[in-house]
Specification:
2 copies of one chain form a homodimer. By secondary structure, the first copy, chain A, is an alpha/beta fold. The first copy, chain A, has 13 helices and 10 strands. The radius of gyration of chain A is 18 Å and the shape is globular.
Amino acid sequence: MTTTYAVSLVDVRTAAGILAGHAHRTPVITCASLDARAGAALFFKGEHLQKVGAFKFRGAFHAVSRLTDDVAARGVVTHSSGNHAQALALAALMRGVPAHVVMPSNAAAPKRRAVEGYGARVIECEPTLAARESTAARVLEETGATFIPPYDHPHIIAGQGTAALELLEAYPDLDAIIAPVGGGGLLAGTAITATSLRPSIRVYGAEPKGADDAARSFASGTLVPQTGPRTIADGLLTSLGEKTWPIIRDHCEDILTVSEEEILVAMRLAWERAKLLIEPSSAVAVAAAMSGRFSGSGDRIGVILSGGNVDLDRLPWVVTGA
Amino acid sequence: MTTTYAVSLVDVRTAAGILAGHAHRTPVITCASLDARAGAALFFKGEHLQKVGAFKFRGAFHAVSRLTDDVAARGVVTHSSGNHAQALALAALMRGVPAHVVMPSNAAAPKRRAVEGYGARVIECEPTLAARESTAARVLEETGATFIPPYDHPHIIAGQGTAALELLEAYPDLDAIIAPVGGGGLLAGTAITATSLRPSIRVYGAEPKGADDAARSFASGTLVPQTGPRTIADGLLTSLGEKTWPIIRDHCEDILTVSEEEILVAMRLAWERAKLLIEPSSAVAVAAAMSGRFSGSGDRIGVILSGGNVDLDRLPWVVTGA
């Protein structure tokens, strides 16, 4: 019996063709100082330098591009306080169609400014999942627009997989790849792409201990939803999806969990030593690379830096006067 | 009558050959948001991602490499509180020879830690130029080491020129290049390289109004020393040198000066919108690109981001509780 997954390498290559000339082919950056700490050679795929400052642009642009003209013209909708909202707003702007973004009233001001800066209409709601979903449903009904989810969608997963495709085109001989995992769009896209291109590669998810649904799902072999996440890595709070989970279950080597302290140490090192302006969710993957798991292995490890959207006035290591 | 300059394109190509495999070939990064503000297409050469976090590694590694074995074995010396010190320390470490770095007692702690982290011996002195020079002279006498100056040296200038060489190899059709100017090593190397490869290109220096010796020298046609600089761009406090000045005088289009406020605005934009973790000296070049000089010109402008060594606990836009 063959399991059918939501996405194959062919879909990722299709997405790459659609993204060419529209998304940045982000650089791969190395840093001897971080290598020495990890005991391995790390190859950082710099998606913080992607449009909107996050890999999310890949999936969103791909998904919006795949809509037919008449469907696209009615616009797109999502509910998100994070990078997917910015990504969808820009993708819609580039296609010339409306974007409606439902955001919780407690969303960080720079995130709201960025979404509005890309021309999207922001609809505020109470900061609960129920309010987000009901508000989004109302907007869908009013506009006839298409809902574009943040991760559990074949076009989103295929788009996110293009980061690993580029990384392996540049460095085909990697022994392993680490990607942060929240809803699993990036990790699923990475896992399908990397294991299809290079069957011997080991793909790891990296997750905060305080939001470890993927690790618990992986250990138990059953999709475990996330409840009550507590972590600074605000891009990794969500549960795995029905489409991302089977891919991750069958194509990943393991899910590595890291503590909040490890996340902050890794983020500070990445900023101070490697000049990588990454957000905490990216630092989760860096922390996993430096967790001791690879120490002395001499492995060549790709690390996908998912984004760089942080509030510069509230950096975690600064005691602000405010 | 022909003026002979300290450096030619041949020297820069020689330096590039020596640096290959030892220095990073840093990425060129673009950002639609900054382009929109500049009214031009900006191509950022990311030397903040260079080893030691600054272009200075290019010149230092080149200069140390050019020493004969017996001379190199006696070590190298410099006096610097900045990126050149880290660069020379790492270059010496890579060659396996001693580095002695004279640093003022008020140098920022992270800079001293970084220099020591590269295995150099730090010799503290009073924070005056006289004390730095006399202490360096004493160390030279004691050790028989070679003094490697931060900018006014042919091997340093040629090494710094390799950043522009890489930029123009990647983007041969640039209309202009902007580089920050302090002592002028980077700008002189950039100017020789760019005008030799592409005679129609316009090369600009970028300088803080509060340390505008290069602008005053350029306007008057005579080398004017810097006195009493007042700027946050701590890499650009020095005067032009006898070797860098004639190159800059004869190969640059102009020196653009920017205010402290423009520097801070540009630095914040570079961090927030482009995720470029650059230091204020780099932001001077970004500010010059956004100064209105190029607005609406449609020019394709290379901007050399000189480095990313900032004290993350004292970011200029954060009111710290300390």
